[in-house]
C-alpha cells in the first residue's frame, strides 16, 4: 500500500465522523434522525406509545445501569423509561469544547475551570444543541420528566440549564454520595460562588450528601434524602448474578480476593493546592502484594482487579511493568481484570476478601460480613489522612499502616481458608459507617425516586409546578 493510501485510510474515517457531527449540529433532519436511531438502537429501550396515564421518563444512561433500579421498583407499570445514551450529547460536547477537553485533568475537575469565560461561547453553542436535541426527544417520545444522575459535572450543568430554559421538568438523582472533609472544605464554597441553576428536585443518598450541596448554596428545601437506589440490590436477590454469569474467567474452584484499583490522585483531585505528591508509591505496594498472592497462592486464589466507570482515574502508572511480572508467573490466569460491565456488588458478594484504599467499594462491602482490608502509609497519607475517608478509624474494616502488616495478615487469612468472623462491635461499626454515607437502607430507594417523579409529573400536568 502506498504512503498516500495509508494516510487516506487513516484520516478519511475521522473526517467522515467530523462531517457527520457537523451535520447533526447544523441540520434538523440529520439531528432528528441521529437522535432517533441512537435511542431506538440502545439495548435497554423498547419504545412504545403512551399507555393510559403512564408517566414517561427520559433517563440519562449511567454505565452501571443505575436507573434500572427505578424501573425494577415499578411493580404497577405506572412508568415508562426511555434511556438516553450519552452518545447523543457527549461527542457534540467534545467537538464544541475541544479546548476545554485538552485542559481537563484525570480526577474530578472544579467547575471553576468549566465556567472560565474563555469557554462561554463554546458552552453557549453546546446549550443551543442541547435545547434542540431535548426538544426533539420530548416530542418524539412524549416525555413527562427528565431524570439525570449528577448535578455538578461540567457538561451536565449545561444540559440542566438547557432543560430549565425550555421549562422541561427535571430531577437530578446525584450519584456522588461521598465527600471527604477536604472536598467539602474546598469544593462547596466554589459551588456557592458559581452555581447558577437548580433542578426541580435534587435527590441525595444521605444527610452527609445533602450537606455538601447546602454548604454549596443549594436551597435546602429543594433537596430530598431518598437513599442510594443502586443499593436496593441487597434486597433484590432475583437480580443477583454469580460466578461465570458475572464473568467467564471466574474460577469456582478458587477463593477470590477483590481489589479496587486506584489512581495517582484518588480522592485528592484539586482539593490540595500546591501538593505535588501522589499515591503511586502506595499503589506500587498494593500491586506488589497482589503479585505475591498470585505467586504463592495462585493455585487456589484468584485476584479480581476492579476498575470503575472512568478507568483512567483508577490507572496505576506502573501497571505495564506489573503486567510484565505477572506474565512470568505460573498462575497468570489467577489475575482477572474487570471493568464497569461487571457489577461491583455482584463481585463483592462472590468474593472472600475485599481490598482497597480510598473507595466507596469498601463501604459497599460493609453490607456483607466478609473481611475488608484497607491500608494507608507513607508521609503523604500521614499528612492528610484526617481529611480522607476515615477507614483508619474504628473497626469497620481491617486497617493496616504498613505493607508488611497487611501481608502478614493476608498470609494468615489465606492459610486459614479465609475463615473470618465479625465481632458485635465490628458489625455495629460497619452499620454506622455505611449509614452515614447511605441512609434509608431498606430496599425502597427506587420506590422513593418513583414517588418524586410522580409528584413532579402531576404538578406539571396540573400547572402547579414552580
Structure in a nutshell:
This protein is of the alpha/beta class and 466 residues long.
CATH homologous superfamily annotation of the largest domain: Glycogen Phosphorylase B
> Radius of gyration, rounded?
24 Å
Task: Give the fraction of residues assigned to helices.
Answer: 40-55%
Unreliable segments (pLDDT under 50, ≥5 consecutive)?
Answer: none
Order of helices and strands: HHEHEHHHHEHEHEHEEHEHEHEHEHEHHH
Task: Using the 3D structure, state the CATH architecture of the largest domain.
Answer: 3-Layer(aba) Sandwich
In whole angstroms, the N-to-C terminal distance is: 64 Å
Features:
Rossmann fold; six-stranded parallel sheet; 45% helix; single chain; 466 residues
Kindly describe this structure.
With 466 residues, this protein is an alpha/beta fold. It folds into 2 domains: 26-235 and 443-462, Glycogen Phosphorylase B (Rossmann fold); 237-437, Glycogen Phosphorylase B (Rossmann fold), CATH 3.40.50. It is built from 18 helices and 12 strands. The strands form 2 sheets. A 6-stranded parallel sheet has the order 2-1-3-4-5-6, with helices on both faces. The chain has a 6-stranded parallel sheet with strand order 9-8-7-10-11-12, sandwiched between helices. Helix 7 packs across helix 8 (154-165), helix 9 packs across helix 10 and helix 11 runs parallel beside helix 16 (403-415). The radius of gyration is 24 Å and the shape is globular. The termini are far apart. The model has no long low-confidence stretch (mean pLDDT 92).
Describe the SSE topology.
Elements lengths: L2 H24 L1 H13 L14 E6 L7 H6 L5 E6 L5 H7 L1 H6 L7 H4 L5 H22 L3 E4 L5 H12 L4 E4 L7 H14 L6 E4 L2 H9 L7 E3 L29 E6 L19 H18 L3 E6 L12 H9 L7 E4 L5 H7 L2 E4 L3 H5 L7 E4 L2 H7 L13 E3 L2 H13 L8 H14 L7 H18 L4
Parallel strand pairs: 1-2, 1-3, 3-4, 4-5, 5-6, 7-8, 7-10, 8-9, 10-11, 11-12
Helix pairs in contact: 1-2, 2-7, 7-8, 9-10, 11-12, 11-16
